[in-house]
């Protein structure tokens, strides 16, 4: 929960702008607030306006635009260095915080009410990100996971086997995010058209098409899904917990971990998000999916995010070339003298 009384007026103005004009989700606005309050508290200490030993205790609610005018690009670099040294923040985390600072100062500079003439974050660059290959299950491992999820090994498993199998099936076939899966409501599914709508990052709605495996898994689950005594305001939730309310993210993570373990797969290597990577990789490798179509399906804002799956496929292409039976032929070219 954002405590507006502890924020300076210009920060609250930016948060309102983010929610209303930029149409950012409540979680995104909350992240903006957290990142920027920490940034402003650091700057108070960095610029010598307070001597608080614990930066978190710094009071920032009386700050005004004259304070922002003191901040330079070098000061912002000092903040990012502080995060890296004190908290071992990773490049991806630093890039997100740098992006928040850029959006904030762009708003303040472009708003005539504040009169900030120079934008200190205008030339702020993102830290260079490591291009690590995503971890994903192979086709064989994915099939093992689905088979394990379809079988109940105990009475407790038996109570939710249809639900848990449907969850695993949707993850592996649709590549949706955890937050998207738990937020699915019955009204979001158009069974006659075999598709559903989900709300992704940035509060953006997109369509996910359901193949035969997804439709069958959903039909099996809905046949046994509780219909009575569901908690108020949870009646339309697709996936229900044993307490008869919308399933939580943590419960889904537990379900995925349990099924991975049943399938004999490494739970330290694979997770809920890795199933999203798996779906994307399998679709690209085996489905001849266009990269733009894959971007739309996954709800990626930037095509560069989707391109990590093409890198995975390129490894497969190289292996295919190396496995060509003619690759070992050692024939010397001979020319007439």
Oligomer: single chain
Q: What value does the Rg take, in angstroms? A: 25 Å
- Report how far the terminal alpha carbons are from each other: 84 Å
Helix-strand string: HHHHHHHHEEEHHHHHH
In the sheet with the most strands, the strands line up as 1-2-3
| Share in β-strands | under 5%
Number of DSSP-assigned strands: 3
Q: Mind summarizing the main beta sheet?
A: 3 strands, antiparallel
Write down the overall mean pLDDT: 83
Q: What coarse outline follows from CA principal-axis ratios?
A: elongated
Provide a count of the helices: 14
Low-confidence stretches: none
Into which percent range does the helicity of residues fall?
40-55%
Overall structural class, as computed from helix and strand content, comes to mainly alpha
Description:
- The radius of gyration is 25 Å and the shape is elongated.
- The chain has a three-stranded antiparallel β-sheet with strand order 1-2-3, with no helix packed on it.
- The chain is mostly helical and 337 residues long.
- The chain has helices at 9-20, 26-46, 65-68, 73-87, 91-110, 139-149, 155-174, 178-182, 212-224, 249-262, 272-286, 291-298, 303-306, 308-322; strands at residues 189-190, 195-199, 205-209.
- The longest helix is centred in the first third of the chain and has 21 residues, at 26-46.
